[in-house]
Amino acid sequence: MSNAANIEESLCDADLVIGAVLVPGAAAPKLVTRAMLGAMKPGAVLVDVAIDQGGCFETSRATTHQEPTYEVDGIVHYCVANMPGGVARTSTQALTNATLPYLLALADKGWRRALLDHAHLRNGLNICRGRVTYPAVAQALGYLYVDPVEAIKAAADVPLR
Q: Do 87 and 104 touch, CB atoms closer than 8 A?
């Protein structure tokens, strides 16, 4: 189970730790603190895949493909923002394959019907006609959350511009 005690215990033996935390619509939680680095072997590596959402290691800061690593307390950090950019062709093909069905649904059905028919597509809706339809966004910004289905159905009565 992933909890602070188990993470800290695992860090003692790790040569490589890959942090890949995603909280949709919010910053990644800091799962490894700077204090925990002291328990790691010198030269161990932290790879922060969550860097695009602020990182999941307290000592993470975004780096580039040109200068991808830095050290903190003898621990190597790899925190390249947009890691897929390192394999641009392959990542573009993967993204296209994953998103094409949604694009086709939008083209074939229009945005309202496509979102009502496809829960995964609807889960990507953040704002509809000025109403916040994503709980984490509403909470982060202090706005009222509106159920996306309700917002989409209400938008059906409003002509598109």
A: no
Q: What is the pLDDT of residue 161?
A: 41
- What is the rounded distance in angstroms from the CA atom of residue 159 to the CA atom of residue 161? 6
**DSSP label of 67:** S
Residue with tokens 């509809």: 128
pLDDT at 26: 79
Domains of the chain, earliest start first: 4-82 (3.40.50.720), 101-155 (no CATH)
* Residue listed under structure tokens 């040109």: 66
Q: Give the other-Cβ count within 10 Å of 34's Cβ.
A: 13
Instruction: Tell me the average confidence (pLDDT) per consecutive run of 10 residues in the chain, 161 residues long.
Output: 90 96 86 95 97 96 96 98 92 95 95 94 93 90 94 75 41
What's the pLDDT score for residue 2?
A: 82
Strands annotated E in the chain: 16-19, 45-48, 69-72, 75-78, 127-128, 131-132
Long-range interactions of 146-149: CB distance < 8 A, separation 24+: 148/115, 148/122, 149/116, 149/122
